[in-house]
Every structure is written in structure tokens, then in C-alpha cells.
Structure prediction request, 459 residues.
Amino acid sequence: MSVRYGVVGWTPAKRWYDAVLLGAIALYLVGYTELAPMLVPESRALDGQSLRIKAFGSAAFLLLTFALAIGPLARLDRRFLPLLYNRRHLGVMTFALALAHALEVLGWHFAFSPTPPLVAALSSEPGLGTWPGTPFVPFGILALLILFALAATSHDFWLNFLTPPVWKALHLGIYLAYAAAVAHQVFGYFLAAANPGFVGVTVASAGLLLGLHLAAGLRGRRAPILGAEWVRAAAAADIPEGGAVVVEVAAGEPVAIFRNEGQLSAVSNLCAHQNGPLGEGRVVDGCITCPWHGFQYRLADGCAPAPYTEKLATYRLRVEGGEVFLDVRACPPGTYQQPVPA
Amino acid sequence: MQTSLAEAIIAAAMGYGAVGLAIGAAFLVFGIGRLDGGAHGAYAFRPLLLPGLALLWPYVVWRWSGGAAPGFAGQRRHRAAHRWAWIGLAVLLPALFLTALSLRTPVGDAPVRIAAP
Ligand code: HEM
Ligand code: FES
Prediction:
């Protein structure tokens, strides 16, 4: 928020989140390097470093898949919302795991030659068609570079410094990174089929992600309302106390209609921070609280409480016979609207 | 890739990064407070920015020397961009799997004896 920067905007929830996440990653890595060797026959046993390469690489990929799955999961089922709060740290940890993977690779496959490891890694790619054949390391390098750029610009400072549209465009790079990571795996791996289990994991992860986004996208298209200035937006009874319903408006931003202490207020559904879906958040201490990073706004005028300065567009509401009507013309951000009892 | 080309790429990347680190460090000490009010009196978070500053140093130089921040485009455009990104992935990922499958050399076939002993 527009207040002095810290290293991390810590909250108790974020500490728990990070602790659980780090614990899960540690378990996975230890499980992979300690338990996996017991499952494979002696003849196919791997040395510790090869195991670590695989453990770090697969952990990075699974974490990236998880990070990209949270958005649609939370849209499909509100119980996943708490996972969204701290998604930024997932990205940074994904980069750390991918970097560990790459460093292990450099220290293993390219360690025993007079050529410096980095030079060797770039120059020793086999030609297309010979096994392992298809160049797959460049895809890994591309993915790692993108993950680095995103992790390096994840602090809130960057959102202001680059401005939100540029920052968001840059962070769309996560999709390219995902595609590159998949290419890295299928070309390196599929072809060799030395680890059929992980081929299945890669395909299943990508399929799951695409399916989730399709399902969430179809759901988001519900209730398009067209035309006039005043539209019937919802049945008052459908708006939960302390929560909201989101209304898609034909022209303009989606609108979130909140109920707090029996009164209704309508604001833009897009958080002023990074367009988080406010309607999926809740009212905490009398303020709408964004599910993504916890920015808060007062219900009646859409203003963040002092010392913050963010403002949301507000909307006029009317209630007649248990139906909520919405004026789809947004009022300037910060305009006071008397909450409507319903 | 030829060794000489690989060496040139790595040298260029190192040079770029070294210039970026120097500019980034100077920016953290002298420039940031002027450009961003949120950084006034806040120091602990600054080293975190260094990798990003080293990566994007041409933009840092541009802003530091008084260049304007890029203008604001609507929020809807961004939501549409996400939708297109997913549609792109829905095409690209299956295509990657199919390409890999078609390139795949069969492994694990039973060994065939080519001549009787
Ligand atoms: C500079 C960047 C990278 C390099 C040089 C690199 C290199 C490699 C190499 C050489 C292998 C084969 C390892 C072996 O079988 O011994 C491999 C496998 C793999 N890489 Fe990477 N990689 C990079 C980045 C990434 C990234 C960013 C991800 C994921 C987000 C990733 C995920 C994987 C996975 C999942 C495997 C297969 C692991 C297994 O054998 O089960 N890599 N990589
Ligand atoms: S708090 Fe970050 S998007 Fe709302």
C-alpha cells in the first residue's frame, strides 16, 4: 500500500503459510532423495547428485503448477481462498528451487571438463534427432530466466516503479515460463522415457491446470447483464453477510455487492493494488478485505482507511421487493454512497 | 552452439549484469528516495531490489534521468490478456506433448538376437 516499504509485509497468516510451504518442500526433497532410492532396483540406482537434480527440478515444476492452479481453484471454491493470500512467495520459492536444480546440473553434467561449466552447458547441446536429441536445456534456461525476472520484480516497489500495466504485462511471462518448463521436460524426458512416472506427472499437471482454468472461465461468464443503466443484479437473500456477489456488467468492470451488518454497498470488483477479485474477499473489521494481499476499503466510499490512499469506484444501489438493482454507471473512485438496508 | 559463441554470450551477460549491479547499487543509495515516496526512510527492503535493478538497468537509467513512467492502460485489457494466455497454453501444451511423442524413440523393447550362436 502507499506507505513505507518493508522487506515483506508480514502478517501471522503469512508466517504460517511460509512455514507450512517450506516444511512441505523440505519433506518432498528429503522424501525424494532418501526414499526414492529404496523403491528402485539396485541396478538403476542413482548417485546423490542426480537424485538432487531430479528432486529440485520436479519440486520447482510442481510448485509452479500449484501456484498457477490456486487462482482458478479459489474462483471455483472459496475454501481455497486462503492459499491466494501469499502467492507471491510461491513464485520466489519456485525460482529458488529451479536455480538449485540448474546449479546441481552445472556441477554434475558439466563439472569434469576443462571448459567452464556454463560455457559447456550452452555449447554441448546435441543435435536434433540424436538421443537425448531435441535441445531441451535451452528451454530450461528460458524458464529459469523468466522465473528470475519475475522473482526479482516481485516486491511492491516494482509495481509502482514499472507502473501496474507494465508490471502485469511482465508477469504474464509466467505462462511462457510454464510452457518452456513443459517443453524442457517433455523434450528432455519423454524422449528418453527414463522416468515414465514423471512423464505422467507432467502431462497430468498441465491437463489439470488447463481443465481448472476452463472450468473457472466458464463459471466467470455466468450472469452477464446487458443494456439499461439500472439492472436487476441479484436477489438480496443471495448476498451473504460479510461477503459479496459479483455482477458482470456489459460495459465496464465487474461490480461486487457486499453485505455488512444488514446493509448493502457496491464497489468495483477490481482491487486497486493488482486487480485482485474483491468480491471473493470478506468484510473484516468493517472493511472489504482483498483476498490477494489484504488491502482494505471502507464499504460506503471505497476508500482505504488512513494512512492508505487507494480508492475504488462505487455504485448506486436500490432494493425493491427483495431484488437488488444496480446503476451500472460507476461513480468516481471514493464517492460516498449511503449503504442500503436489505 | 559453438564454444566461442557460448563464451561470447556468457561474457555479454556478465558485462550487462556487472553494469547493472553498479547502477542498481548507486540507484538504491542516491536515486530511489527521489523517485518513490514509499522508500523514504525505509532501508531494509532495498537490497531485495538489487537483482531486479541489475536486470532492468536500462529502464532504471531512463527513469532516473527523468524519463516518464509508461502510461496506464485499462484493467479489462489485462483480464483479456490472461484469457488469451490460457487459450494459447491450451494449444501449445498439447502440441508439445504430441511433438515429443512423435520424436520419441521406442525404448524398452525386448532385445532381439540377431544371429544364432
Ligand atoms: C538453466 C536452467 C536449467 C538447466 C540447465 C536444466 C537442465 C536439466 C538437465 C540437464 C536435466 C536432466 C537431468 C538428468 O536427468 O540428470 C533436467 C531435468 C529436469 N528439469 Fe531442468 N534445467 C533447467 C531449468 C529447469 C526449470 C526452470 C525447471 C522447472 C520449473 C526444470 C525442471 C526439470 C525437471 C522436472 C527435470 C526432470 C527431472 C527428473 O529427471 O525427474 N528445469 N534439467
Ligand atoms: S491486495 Fe493485492 S490485489 Fe488486492
